[in-house]
Amino acid sequence: MLQEACSAAEHVALQLGRDGDRYAALGAALRSAQPASVLTVARGSSDHAANYCAYLIMARLGRIVASLPMSLVTLYKSPLLTRDALAIAISQSGQSPDVIEPIRYFRAGGATTVALVNEIASPLAASAEWALPLHAGPELSVAATKSFITSLVAAARLVAHWQDDPEFLAQIDALPAALQQATELDWSAAIDVLAPASRIMVVGRGAGFPVALEAALKFKETSVLQAEAFSGAEIKHGPMALINEGYPLLIFATRGPTQASLIKLADEMRGRGARVLLAAPADVSERDLTLPVAATPDLDPIVAIQAFYVMAANLSIARGLDPDRPRHLSKVTKTN
After folding, report:
1. Which of 78, 87, 91, 263 is buried most, with the most CB atoms less than 10 Å from its CB?
2. Are 149 and 9 in contact (CB under 8 A)?
3. pTM to 2 decimals?
């Protein structure tokens, strides 16, 4: 897991050097088609990447995006209106039936279908009108790392080409260097706090919320921590009732309009006795962990999760576990 996570910059550079014409053609097609609805189709880490993709589409293009409950197609056989829709599937393996079947259904119904998939010779890639490889290479660790990061980058490229935004594309091109720098950050303070822990809340908001979701999943998978992710706007409702003395919280305060509220939340939770780990950029004096930054705040989540992955792999080892072989899990999950 650690080796694969640290290789993300290399694979992002590989991806950025390929398929530019294909992304540009897709962007032109989307500007022409003007899809009336946009849906994402994904599970697990890929669904967290889809959440980030949805955020970018809504924030930068103004299109409302929903995550498709796949059982509507696979089990309920609901008569969905698919014409003039855009369906975006994200997958590492491209093998799961509940991701493949909706893409086939939407394509047959006249929708534009896109697959961001690592295994380009997969049923999902074959099912979509537009299949774009992640170029993450083989991923042996059960816990996805480099394939998640390359999924985020592919989503950003899709949006940049849809916008036809040269500035955003140039900012994306600077990601490999930022990712490499992120692997070198020292998050050992988090290991000291979390090695003896049994539970944790992970908090983010806006573009950073998908990172909180992914971090919580990795805590479960690789460190057997009962981890739950919450938006910084939601934690003050029911979840705050769980906070007691020493309760650990990891808060991702990435740059942007949500950052100030997350820094304030960290202070409030410290006042309630929580053991807060505030991850924020170097200009935030209250931080416990330093977050890397990208060329624009919209790309900060990509480098933030890179720094987290390095810590998560080392935390698993510190807890006496094997991050490459989480119990009860396999690399490819096939659900209907």
Report:
1. 91
2. no
3. 0.95
